[in-house]
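Why does this matter for the project? Reviewers at the last site visit asked to see concrete outputs rather than summary tables. In response, this paragraph embeds two records directly. Each consists of the residue sequence and, immediately after it, the corresponding structure tokens. Nothing has been edited or filtered.
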Amino acid sequence: MPFTELPLGQFFEQMVAQQQDREFIVYPDRNARWTYAQFNERVDSLAKGLLHIGIEPGDHVGIWAKNVPDWLTFSFATAKIGAVLVTVNTAYKSHELEYLVRQSDMKCLAMVDRFRDTSYLDIVYELVPELKTHPRGKLCSERFPFLKSVVYVGQEKFRGMYNTSELMLLGRNLPDTRLRECVANLDKDNVVNMQYTSGTTGFPKGVMLTSYNIVNNGYYIGERQHFTCEDRLCLPVPMFHCFGMTLGLMAILTHGGTMVMLEEFDPLLVMASIQKERCTAVYGVPTMFIAELNHPMFDMFDFSSMRTGIMAGSPCPIPTMKEVMTKMNIREITSAYGLTEAAPVFTQTSADDPPEIRATTVGKGLPEIEIKIVDPETGETCPLGTPGELCCRGYNVMKGYYNMPEETAKAIDQDGWLHSGDMGTLDKDGYYRITGRIKDMIIRGGENIYPKELEDFLLTIPEIRDAQVVGVPNERYGEVPGAFVIFHDGKSLSEEEIVEICHKKMARYKCPKHFFFVKEFPLTTSGKIQKFRLREMAKELLNIDSTAFTNLEEKSSESTIQEKEMS
């Protein structure tokens, strides 16, 4: 039986009662601090404000922001109402936001003003021009019929938008009656969080996660790190990913610990926060840890308080893992494996596993989750040591993809097994290793990129007749997208012109790093494009030494073998 059956809103109130005066949320760069009780007051004020402007149980509320304090306030306020928090990638631009708001049937969008070089305000006013003429809360958008409100996360006022300060002030002056009714009627199996993950069909799919999924998964993730209420987690990973939401927030909440938050990753700020707040744990993808270890001011900081954490998202070089253990004193660092659809973790190493195990495996299965490795062709369970597709079944499996029953049926079979699309092995001691992937997915420094989405976008450019995107080895990120492009007769664009178009409409991390202009693609005898040949061509054209990227080659070897067999 999993750890708890309480829905998130009720579980949060239970932890508030237990840990009232303990620090829950800390922002060390501005010395902003809230105890569990203080943060709960903030959550209740926002929840009542949202109810007042028409947010009801089951409504979809988007949050498009970096890790600002009110990202966390919205996550618990919507959970108490029974609304669904829809997380929006901070790197998204107009092309992706338009799809997500429409596909999710979003009723309310909460947003900050900008992220790096992208003005969220400009994008939203461009997509929803009615904001400038319609009363707040009475929005009638031609493009987004479900969208009724936009909330600016901050104190500034913008035409057609509420701001969080107004909603909280409003909430503080409203009775608790309606909110108490909502909390009492919460159900653990109702969707509480929806995260969008890219799919091979092109556009992202909304993964519906319940309280039962994420609260329990967070608890077991924390257990593998031996978390207690004394732990203080430095979190520089984004909250819109499960890495931040489940591995971070839920793992700390279920153990009554403290979140030491950073709005976005900065290696210097991570190290300063660890020292100032005496953090015991830190999370990150390998490139984050490498940036910290290689920072010229690294030796100035005190890591003596550190003990554990998680390094995940992409393969970790063994030397980096060892340096993290010794130089950063994170002697109980763990690694985890999963996918958003699994809430997300179903295997993880333990803080007391030997260092070699933590560096070379993704650990053992978490409690209360069934795992099997099957032959992708026959569905038969594979013997020990034989590669096959990783599948899991249990409390952690998503409710499905929002409004995509056919895609849901492809991911979760009739017996309830979630198929990961990743290849792995199981050894005699119960440890799992990832050996490759079935999906034609690119992992850029922990960010999943699906070629089909990029290919579909490139085909919207009038000059381009056809485009194929593959993963290209990269020393910093593991791999990056490379695009092979065929132009229409008599048409052409420079690489710089295509890059400019991509940057205007798509998240920068997705945009191809390399472009190759060709007349034709290599084909099989049946006319299918040989992507393994395109990968080889990219390495040859860029003069990349494959032996320098062993981990990447191992991860892509399975799909390459399958493609060769098809030819």
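We now turn to the second protein, recorded in exactly the same manner.
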Amino acid sequence: MLPDYFLNPRSIAVIGASEGSAKIGGKIMATLISCGYEGRLLPINPRGGLLHGLPAFRSIAEAPGPIDLALIAVPAPIVAQAVAECAAAGIAGAIVFSSGFGEAGAEGAALQRDLRAVIERTGIRVAGPNAEGFFNIRAKIAPTFSPAVHVKSIAGPLGRDISVVAQSGGLGFALFNRGAAQGLSFGTIVSVGNQVDLDLAAFAHHLIEDEGTAALLLYLESFTRPDAFLAMAKEAARRGKPVILGKAGRSDAGRRAAASHTGALGGEDAACDAMLARHGVLRGDDQDELLDIAAGLVKHSLPAGRRVAVISPSGGTGVWLADACARFGLEVPEIDPERQARLRAIMPAYGSPVNPVDLTGQGAGGGQGAASFVDALKILYDAPYLDAFILAGSFAHEARLKREGEAIRDFARGPKPVLLHSYTLVSDASRSILEGLGLHCFATGSGTVRALAGMAQYHDFLETTRPALLAPPKPLTLAPEAAAMMKGRQGMLAEYEAKALLRAAGIAMPRDIIARNAAEAAVAQTAFGVPVALKIQSPDIPHKTEAGGVALNIQDAAAASAAFDRIMAASREYAPEADLHGVLVQPMAAPGIEMILGVTRDRDFGATLMVGFGGVHVEVLRDIVFAPAPVSPSEAHAMLRRLRAFPLLEGVRGGAAADIDALVALITHVSEIAAAMGENLQELDLNPVLVHPDGQGCSLLDALILLSSETEEAA
């Protein structure tokens, strides 16, 4: 955890202090003084003298204590020595601004290792290196060289601040810079740099526990301590404080090659998204999106649903916003006839009351008898099928806000959020009125809608996912027979081996027989007495169809014998070095909807479950969803509903509904098995899973399991 003194030090020593602001040490001194730091400030410079009007000390050993925090801005090669001297002087914490460490090649990495050794030996807590410091706005403490601290800081009501922690100092302070200019209130901005000791999770956890923090904005490129990050997110969820994250690494370049469909489709970002969603962490893709989501959450009540009324005097803007709502998963329902009639009575004939509600330009002008935002809200606010409102107008002039601002504010204080968007630039006079009313105005239509979608997502999390997250975890154990089958195994299992393991773990499987030669294949077909499928069995051929290793609808023993020989020959030609175990014979399955169910192990977040519509085209269609394993039955059902083709399972155009309950039970069971397998399971792939009509269950036609050795995981 972060020591309390770190962001609120009573005394600060600046090692590498200089006069003026040309060098970092001088800039830090100047910023601390100009922002009104009220504690003791001790410049450290070998030349002594006066710096910024304060007596400078030649070394940290000469400076009078106690000193809470040291700020280090000296050349990288002497940083480790400076930190050691701080520890010897009894200083418990330091921020290293110096660059040229892990970000600067082999030589820099060696310097960072030296710094880490000093930290481990002395116990001093260090932020950085390559950090940009922090800005504790309410305490007026700004040990940073960022020019963004000169932006007017707005201290709103305690408990409504946005705090920022960023791996990139430039981006962290840029969020503050842009957000403060929009009228948002900030608490503390922190740059963590290379995270040699204190990392983003430590600062974030500390700020979540700060009563002034209402929401937390984060930017990171990698998780140094995934467990600590999730513990912070869980605490934020417990307190009902949203966390909005910008994280690099969504591109396909970050994906790893995998043998299974699940591995190929998943990748690190899918696992990250799934785990973050479970913990209520919202993701944004750029600075403006992060700020829009944060503004929505700290400035408005949460919508109980996703149904939105768009009200504007600009028809084009209304349509554009409606399109954005559809893109972000929000609904724009048609207004009921009775309310439509009441709206028509207050607007010109060429207006539209259907939703989007077009008040027309006459409404924008505010002439005699013109419809206003407030008139429309009076008619629509209590509609049971509406959860939120977007008012899109022009605030290039303050006239509308002078007329309607207070009434809009009163509606905005109610249970249904009212978001404002100006499709023109907001005038200074309008912005002053908005700030006085406590209203936020979004600059773009897409930003307005993205904010509302984030608000709806967070409401859903609080109502549906948070209770399970905060509940005691269910103990999971693997059946002893299945655990014994895994012991000592590593690498890919052939299908029949994977199915045997899953049977031992309690998953029902169709009957099958492994045939080692053509005669055994014929006997197996005769034993089943029905049309069968034959499939090559080899840990080296995970995709059997590509190898010509599958024969379907084999009707008799002779055909089974011939199919065996054909499959073995094709497989040898496809993969001459493959270890061929034989051919699996199983009855042809009854018709059903093809699904895929899989698990991959993410290096940061563990077992990640994937569910989707399957078959050979799964990697093309990509109708898939992810969640951390294990999942509850309600979570499994929610995953299915997120699939685009979910209506196929419910039955369309007179078709029979599929056995969704059986599929939900299977998803839940597989997720629990995967979680119980722990680090031994690298990938699991069930494709296809046939879901039969309601009441007839599911059939698992193929299975792939990739195991990791304990020695590999330990390494």
